[in-house]
Amino acid sequence: MIDIGLSKMALIGAVALIVIGPEKLPRVARTVGTLLGKAQRYVADVKSEVNRSMELDELKKMKDTVENAARDVEQSIQTSASEFEKDWAQATAMPGAEVPDASAVVPAYKHPGKNWRLKKGATPQWYKARSGVRTKALSGAARVARYRPQKFH
């Protein structure tokens, strides 16, 4: 950066006072101050943007290494699982029988045969009616109208 000491600042102030004049000097000093503030904010924004981009690059590298490690683990698990399935098929096979392929060991899908819309454990309506269980909700106005005592004329 620029090395400006107290003596150089005093010299610049004296020259500015002579060149600009005492009437315009405060306005020029305010303008220079605001411009310097804007420049400092701009430099700080650029620094923070560069730091964010560097952190983003580091995070991307870290993500790639974690994904590669997960892929390696998944491949090792798959190879060990296929070896286990082959060993299991050989161990459980009848003597003299042909060992089936590992993909043929998986049974076919069988539908459970359930009707999910049918409520099998629901209480019957006739029981609810006999025991006085409310099956329908009434609004506040309907409840007032239903249970209001009748006026006798």
Automatic annotation (TrEMBL):
Keywords carried by this UniProt record: Cell inner membrane, Cell membrane, Membrane, Protein transport, Translocation, Transmembrane, Transmembrane helix, Transport
Domain of life: Bacteria
Annotated GO CC locations: TAT protein transport complex
Coiled-coil ranges (or none): none
Membrane disposition: Single-pass membrane protein
One GO process term, biological-process aspect: protein transport by the Tat complex
MF annotations from Gene Ontology: protein transmembrane transporter activity
Key word Cell wall biogenesis/degradation present: no
Places the protein is found: Cell membrane; Membrane
Family label: Belongs to the TatB family.
Subunit structure: The Tat system comprises two distinct complexes: a TatABC complex, containing multiple copies of TatA, TatB and TatC subunits, and a separate TatA complex, containing only TatA subunits. Substrates initially bind to the TatABC complex, which probably triggers association of the separate TatA complex to form the active translocon.
Family matches, as HAMAP family: TatB
Function according to Swiss-Prot or TrEMBL: Part of the twin-arginine translocation (Tat) system that transports large folded proteins containing a characteristic twin-arginine motif in their signal peptide across membranes. Together with TatC, TatB is part of a receptor directly interacting with Tat signal peptides. TatB may form an oligomeric binding site that transiently accommodates folded Tat precursor proteins before their translocation.
Protein name per its UniProtKB record: Sec-independent protein translocase protein TatB
Protein species of origin: Acidovorax delafieldii 2AN
Lineage, opening ranks: Bacteria, Pseudomonadati, Pseudomonadota, Betaproteobacteria, Burkholderiales
